[in-house]
């Protein structure tokens, strides 16, 4: 250490000679028993490196997550909540319903590079760009592309997410946008005679949405859809014209209660249109977004002829029920029943129509177990505990070569973009 200097000892002589106090130096001896300061610096540097590394990893994860959102992350918000019919509000006028719902209705142009195309409608499902529509709208368009037209006149490219032929529902997605989602009501609260309107883009997906009014003719009627599955649908006399597939059936409180399907509109009977209930839409669309397919829907896995009392009498069959024609190898009944056996009861309920079977199965999920009572072809009685399998289904969406055939007529070779009226 250096000894302190004493300023008072400094003396300047008249001759200019400067006097200094003597300075004493002491040898520096390293201290023992204390940590080196350089070691602390090393620890600090190591911590700093770790922080930088973790920050970099987080950023990589963030940006990769923005480009590829895993189904597990999507599934948290993939199901919309169905709103009950408000009890404290008066019904709105059709004009007010249109004003409220129109921002959530879009037009869809389906096309491919060969010039094949369709037009349809869609409903905004979520703020971040999910659109719901019908699966059949691209069934005859290979490798389809999608243009979405919103109520404010904007145009977006959309990508296919997933579809399901059994329910005839599909999901498209617009990236990097913010849309106005529809308010979805509970279709189980509908009643016959209730006033409703249908909003969609008939004939021209690029034009403004149109509105038609009517009533609920039947809340739950089984109708074979485009996949020949007898689905329970809402029947309405509100006109649903070509191009309105995927549009909205709306109650007079501005709540979407069904997804319209112009493919099911009767061409022989006036005033008959159909819509997929929102209770079905909620389940199916939620799984299409989160899993890319339907995973919970159940099936018994048999083909059959429904034997009601009239059929039994005409064909001299002693019992009503389901006369088994075949059993799929993934059915819980495989190896337990045979062709010619009759299913008489399910969960203790006597089966008199095939609708009864579908009603029971549709309320179940894959993996659930049911009790099946069977009379075999030789008259024996069986009671079987059967696990229902998943009815995953498929989509009409296809990816294949769409190069126009040069031998075809030029009008159909992709040289022109010739739309049909719509789906």
3D structure, described in words:
- The structure is a single chain.
- This protein is α+β, with helices and mostly antiparallel strands.
- 17% of the residues lie in helices and 29% in strands.
- It has six helices and 22 strands.
- The chain has helices at residues 37-67, 71-74, 94-101, 278-291, 309-314, 354-362, and strands at 11-12, 18-19, 105-111, 117-124, 130-133, 145-149, 155-164, 169-173, 195-200, 210-224, 230-236, 248-251, 256-261, 273-277, 298-299, 302-307, 321-327, 342-346, 349-350, 369-375, 381-387, 389-390.
- 34% of the residues are buried.
Which SSEs are present, and which pair or pack?
Blueprint (H helix, E strand, L loop, with lengths): L10 E2 L5 E2 L17 H31 L3 H4 L19 H8 L3 E7 L5 E8 L5 E4 L11 E5 L5 E10 L4 E5 L21 E6 L9 E15 L5 E7 L11 E4 L4 E6 L11 E5 H14 L6 E2 L2 E6 L1 H6 L6 E7 L14 E5 L2 E2 L3 H9 L6 E7 L5 E7 L1 E2 L33
Antiparallel strand pairs: 1-2, 3-4, 3-6, 4-5, 5-8, 6-7, 7-8, 9-10, 9-12, 10-11, 11-14, 12-13, 13-14, 15-22, 16-17, 17-18, 18-19, 18-20, 20-21
């Amino acid at each position: 250490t250096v000894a302190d200097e004493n300023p008072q000892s400094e003396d300047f002589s008249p001759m200019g000679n400067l006097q200094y106090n003597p300075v004493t130096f002491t040898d520096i001896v390293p201290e023992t028993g204390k940590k080196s300061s350089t070691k602390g610096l090393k620890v600090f540097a190591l911590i700093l490196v770790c922080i930088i590394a973790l920050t970099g990893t987080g950023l990589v994860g963030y940006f990769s997550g923005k480009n590829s959102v895993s189904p597990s992350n999507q599934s948290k918000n993939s199901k919309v909540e169905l709103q009950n019919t408000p009890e404290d509000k008066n019904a709105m006028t059709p004009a007010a319903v249109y004003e409220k719902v129109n921002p959530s209705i879009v037009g869809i142009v389906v096309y491919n590079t060969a010039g094949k195309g369709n037009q349809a409608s869609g409903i905004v499902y979520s703020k971040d760009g999910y659109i719901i529509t019908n699966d059949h709208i691209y069934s005859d368009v290979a490798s389809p592309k999608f243009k979405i037209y919103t109520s404010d006149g904007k145009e977006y490219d959309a990508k296919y997410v997933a579809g399901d032929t059994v329910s005839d529902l599909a999901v498209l997605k617009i990236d990097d946008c913010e849309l106005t989602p529809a308010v979805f009501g509970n279709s189980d609260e509908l009643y016959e005679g209730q006033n409703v309107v249908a909003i969609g883009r008939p004939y021209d997906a690029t034009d403004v949405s149109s509105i038609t009014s009517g009533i609920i003719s039947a809340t739950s009627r089984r109708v074979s859809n485009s996949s020949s599955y007898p689905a329970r649908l809402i029947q309405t006399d509100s006109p649903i014209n070509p191009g309105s597939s995927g549009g909205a059936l709306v109650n007079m409180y501005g709540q979407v209660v069904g997804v319209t399907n112009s493919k099911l509109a009767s061409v022989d009977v006036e005033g008959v249109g159909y819509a997929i209930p929102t209770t079905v839409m909620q389940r199916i669309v939620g799984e299409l977004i989160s899993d890319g397919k339907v995973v919970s829907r159940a099936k018994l896995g048999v083909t059959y002829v429904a034997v009601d009392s009239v059929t039994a009498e005409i064909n001299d069959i002693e019992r009503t029920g389901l006369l088994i024609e075949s059993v799929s190898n993934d059915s819980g009944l495989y190896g337990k029943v045979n062709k010619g056996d009759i299913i008489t009861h399910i969960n203790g309920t006597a089966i008199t129509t095939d609708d009864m079977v579908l009603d029971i199965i549709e309320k179940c999920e894959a993996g659930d177990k049911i009790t099946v009572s069977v009379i075999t072809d030789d008259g024996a009685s069986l009671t079987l505990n059967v696990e229902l399998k998943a009815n995953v289904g498929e989509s009409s969406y296809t990816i294949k070569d769409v190069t126009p055939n040069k031998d075809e007529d030029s009008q159909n070779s992709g040289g022109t973009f010739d739309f049909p009226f719509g789906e």
